């Protein structure tokens, strides 16, 4: 079956889908995006993703391409046409098409909208059972990392550095030696006394939707949570470490650079959080496409 994409009002073959050469997403990375997990044909944590999309657009002063309900219907149709039961739906909103010039185009220029979907969700069972290695790199990104912008070149370079080092992910480190986040994930550790630690929200990290859900699930399960910065050295000495995202859930980290975390195997709290998240996906986390 040929894949189908939605581009600016039309459902088109994925292989030939494209935007205008002067689309500002292409020329300036002037746009935002969201990635939403699909499990059993239902979107996971859709409300949180839509709220974050709206916030990112507001911060960049880009108009919503259409009201929320029709946008949800477009995503549902793209998922349906691509026969995705377990996978992701991706949407990107750019400022629009206009002659190349740095200032915003006139308000009458409509934003561009692209939606795609594909099957496949998360790493293999073997990867999850064994855990992964991360490497640490200097954080070289812009100062507004809370906006889910498509300007991801520093993330791309850091991820490539990880792959060339034989690692799964790179954790980015600020000037104080504290971990900010991964290239496409949030970073976590578990202290020796069983406290879950992740960096607090601010301009320096993205407010991960999975991060938000994991904090709520942990607290409801009696796992203490602390939102604070942690150093690379603290992470290497932690009881457990993991990284999270829409597609990874809570993925165990068993090695940081060349240091083995604890006994080098996924820890019990990380395993418990994965279990809780799977329950969440099968229950309240799976939402109706068009909302309430």
Automatic annotation (TrEMBL):
The record's listing under InterPro entries reads: Aminotrans_IV, Aminotransferase-like, BCAT-like_C, BCAT-like_N, Class-IV_PLP-Dep_Aminotrnsfr
Reaction catalysed by this enzyme: L-leucine + 2-oxoglutarate = 4-methyl-2-oxopentanoate + L-glutamate; L-isoleucine + 2-oxoglutarate = (S)-3-methyl-2-oxopentanoate + L-glutamate; L-valine + 2-oxoglutarate = 3-methyl-2-oxobutanoate + L-glutamate
Q: Does the keyword Chloroplast apply?
A: no
Q: Which domain of life is it from?
A: Bacteria
- Extract one GO cellular component term from the record: cytosol
Q: EC number(s) per UniProt?
A: 2.6.1.42
- What cofactor is this protein dependent on? pyridoxal 5'-phosphate
Record CDD domains: D-AAT_like
Query: What pathway is it annotated to?
Result: Amino-acid biosynthesis; L-isoleucine biosynthesis; L-isoleucine from 2-oxobutanoate: step 4/4; Amino-acid biosynthesis; L-valine biosynthesis; L-valine from pyruvate: step 4/4; Amino-acid biosynthesis; L-leucine biosynthesis; L-leucine from 3-methyl-2-oxobutanoate: step 4/4
Q: Which GO terms describe its biological process?
A: amino acid biosynthetic process; branched-chain amino acid biosynthetic process
State any single GO MF term. Answer: branched-chain-amino-acid transaminase activity
Q: Write out the similarity annotation.
A: Belongs to the class-IV pyridoxal-phosphate-dependent aminotransferase family.
Protein role = Acts on leucine, isoleucine and valine.
Write the protein's name: Probable branched-chain-amino-acid aminotransferase
Could you tell me which species this protein originates from? Roseospira goensis
Lineage here is: Bacteria, Pseudomonadati, Pseudomonadota, Alphaproteobacteria, Rhodospirillales
